[in-house]
Amino acid sequence: MTETANARKIAFATFVRRALDDARALRAWSGTEVSRRTGVSRQTINRWVRGDWASDPEAERVVAFCEGLGLDPAAAFTALGWDRAAGPRATPIPPPMDPDVEALLRRLVDPTVSDAEKFHIRETIRYLAYRPTLPGGVRNRGKQAG
User: What share of the chain is helix, strand, coil (3-state, %, to 5)?
Assistant: First the structure.
């Protein structure tokens, strides 16, 4: 293996590892959850982390991985050495975040907040994120009685 190929594997493995670490720390996602959210198998993600691949990862999988984690695929492409010709892109300004969500994120990374409270915050967020939404007619039934 050439030095360049090895360096690319290490750079991409580092990118993937950081993305996974952020998903665990900020969103409390397990490897299985990352796989489910991105559509990329755990085996593939593990191979990327180990740098254990003979040919370059498929661009579609890299994009799916990045989009599932809210990352810019250009960073992954740069780690893979695919973006040499492209100049630096302007980083898009993220939309403003709700102040309550910012407060929750600060509590989740605050070392003085107990693990039990962080667990409760994460579980509540998961519940709200994945609860089924009721059709419009079902929601208004209680208002019709009377």
Answer: 65, 0, 35
Encoding tokens for residue 14? 């580092």
- Over residues 53-111, the pLDDT tens digits come to 888 899 999 999 999 999 999 999 999 988 655 444 555 677 788 888 889 989 998 99
Q: Give the list of residues 6+ apart from residue 88 with CB closer than 8 angstroms, or none.
A: none
Do 32 and 93 meet the contact criterion of CB atoms below 8 Å apart? no
Distance CA 15, CA 62 (A): 11
Residue whose pair of structure tokens reads 């991985």 in the numeric block: 65
Residue-wise DSSP of 68-115: HTT--HHHHHHHTT--SSSPPPPPPPPPPPPHHHHHHHHHHH-TTS-H
Q: What is the pTM of this model?
A: 0.56
